[in-house]
Amino acid sequence: MLGTHSLGVFAATVLVVNATPGVDMMLVLTRTLRHGALGGIAAALGVAAGCVVHALVAAFGVAALLAASSAAFAALKWAGAAYLLWLAFAMLRDAARPHADAALDVSRRAQSPGAARLFAQGLLTNVLNPKVAIFFLALLPQFIDADAPAKLLAFLFLGGWFVVQGAAFLVAFALVVAPLGRWRANARLRQGLQLAGAGLFAWLAARLALVERA
User: Fold this and answer.
1) Per-residue confidence in pLDDT tens, the chain, 214 aa
2) Alpha-carbon gap, residue 118 to 43, rounded angstroms
3) Where are the domains of the chain?
4) pTM of the model
């Protein structure tokens, strides 16, 4: 289709990529547990929008700049690491706030930053990760025929497939874990979960900062 091949293998590859724990999945997980299914879905759709950006820039050759230019790669890498550290700081700040009792869970949804802000968090988390751009540039051409009449259309087709399948996976993931968010843990355990989440995002930021161009 459109000069592509081995679409079954491509679909399986996309599934493995989406099911592998990483920044995007962890963001959807934490936002779902804190803000419910709608919050997790908003973050998931933001991640999908970020993948749209990466697919487009890879298709039109911008990702090649990241692969060739150490300065461009480093700039995006450090911006992404800084954003992840900001998310970690926000979770630390929440953990430091006093929690009176389990009644806080009742008002938690009302204190949600809103779907638009959660969508933006997902978008920025994905867009500011240069590994995603390089991944698109490295993966998609492997499933495009060498003699494809319109390679750009083939690239966009595979990019669109990746976005749709990835969005469906993350939305389903949010729906599956959402019931856990209604579990009322005591204040100390909630604080521990916030600290663990902050540590996780700080670790992801450090791992991103240490990434080098292949």
Assistant:
1) 678 888 898 898 888 878 877 788 888 988 898 888 999 999 999 999 999 998 888 777 755 665 666 776 677 677 767 767 877 787 687 667 655 444 444 444 446 678 899 999 999 988 888 778 777 877 777 787 877 777 788 888 999 999 999 999 999 999 998 887 665 545 565 666 667 767 766 776 777 677 665 5
2) 5
3) 20-209
4) 0.70
Is residue 133 within 8 Å of 66, Cβ to Cβ?
yes
Instruction: State the CB neighbour count (10 A cutoff) for residue 177.
Output: 15
Taking the C-alpha atoms of residue 28 and residue 97, their distance in angstroms, rounded to an integer, is: 23
d(Cα 4, Cα 159) in Å, to the nearest integer?
12
Annotate 135-174 with b (16+ C-beta within 10 A) or e (fewer): bbbebbeebbeeeeeebeebbbbbbebbbebbbebbbebb
